Amino acid sequence: MERILIIGCSGSGKSRLARALGQKQGLPVIHLDQLWWKENWQNVTKEEFDSRLAMALNMDRWIIDGNYSRTMEARLSRCDTVIYLDFSRWACLLGMCQRILSNHGKTRPDMSAGCPERFHWEFVKWIWNFNKNNRVRNYTYLAKAKHAKAVVLRNRKEVKAFLDTI
Q: What are phi and psi of 134, to 5 degrees?
């Protein structure tokens, strides 16, 4: 595993898994949220995001966490492993609540500076509908990436077991 892509719903623990794998494997971790957001929750242009992503993808080794479906094909074409955290909506909502409670008003390490953790009902709705809107597409991505090892983890216990095998 030299180029790992981690996808899944917000609150599933993509960034946490990316950091843990990065430490175990000695791989640099790229959080797509850091490429997309600048201070005060302002996003960069699509062109700037694409340029930042292209630089990351050209590295020999990496872990990239995040969804950003517009760029999924480019990331899938370069990865050798794709990990899909296919968690229930309840597990993701719990993860989101824990994240907000522990980081509210502070910037998480996987976010850009000046983007403090916050709560929005639109985000809750997005998590609630994530599987309905994205699950089929995510399994289609896994099927298309025949060159890459696909790992599907369905809960935090499976994530822990996976990390223990590395």
A: -130, -20
